[in-house]
Amino acid sequence: MNKIHPSAIVHPDAKLGDEVEVGAFTFIEANVEIGNGTKIGSHVGIYDGARIGNNVKIYQGASVSNFPQDLKFAGEETFFYIGDNTTIREFVTLHKGTTATRVSRVGSNCLLMAYSHIAHDCQIGNNCILANAVQIGGHVHIDDWVIIGGVTPVHQFVKIGMHAMIGGGFRTTVDIPPYVLAAGEPLQYSGLNVIGLRRRGFSNEQIYKLKDAYSIIFGKRYNFADVLKVVEEKYPEDDLVKNILNFFSDRTRAVLKR
Predict the structure, then answer these.
(1) Which residues of the chain does CATH 2.160.10.10 include?
(2) Residue 187 reports pLDDT greater than 90
(3) In this predicted model, what pLDDT tens digit does every residue of 197-224 receive, in sequence order?
(4) What pLDDT sits at residue 249?
(5) Do residues 40 and 20 lie in contact, with contact meaning Cβ atoms separated by under 8 Å?
(6) Residue 251: per-residue pLDDT
(7) How far apart are CA 176 and CA 142, in angstroms?
(8) What is the pLDDT of residue 222?
């Protein structure tokens, strides 16, 4: 049985799963789907196009799947997907896609802290943490297990690789490769995210290989045009190193530097 506060406004066409809770003065529009066990606090806006998974927690004042802040948007049907077990804290704003991709997405088991913002056409992976007031521009792609420190702006179209960590308050205008720490002004490579990798079960051998790969990539011994080939020849069968090589090979923007 669902628990909906009498002051909440839930459109009859909205699809709610079982054991859903909706707080006071929250409104849910028509083209919305909400999974089982999701809890929505007070004064929350759930707009058309929201697709919310199971056991999601949405706190006071959040806004989910509102119109994108893009002057080209003309009211087309687009969506915002939220994966299972994700927590959305107070006054988070999540904007659905535009005709460019039609979808914005946050994965499962994520934590979006208070006042964070995810703009249109963004893709956020699983197990990510955005600290307070992180501001994600449009078309940003963030892979799994990324942590971004508080009050950090991320420029539109930036890509951030898996298991990376960005320090709080640093402007992120370049792509961030996997497994690294990024900090400083301007933002720069500050070593491997060793503590995070160990917490997630990476072995000492795996961490050593990643450190060595980045020592080659950011070292001065090789021209960058040849550096990826050097790393590939040294670690031809290592899947973690392949993730690094694929990231650098697919980039279209400037990338983090030492």
Answers:
(1) 3-139
(2) yes
(3) 999 999 999 999 999 999 999 987 777 7
(4) 87
(5) yes
(6) 81
(7) 9
(8) 75
The catalytic site residues sit at: 120-121, 138
What mean pLDDT is reported for the chain? Answer: 96
As a whole number of angstroms, the distance between CA 140 and CA 126 comes to 15
Q: Is 152 exposed, middle or buried (0-12, 13-18, 19+ CB in 10 A)?
A: buried
Angle between helices 204-217 and 239-250 (to 10 degrees): 30
Tokens describing residue 54:
């199971």
Whether 156 and 136 have beta carbons less than 8 Å apart is answered as no
The correct CATH number of 197-250 out of 3.30.70.100, 1.10.10.10, 2.60.40.1120, 1.20.1180.10 is 1.20.1180.10
The domain 3-139 is placed in CATH, from the list 3.30.240.20, 3.40.50.720, 2.160.10.10, 1.10.443.10, at: 2.160.10.10
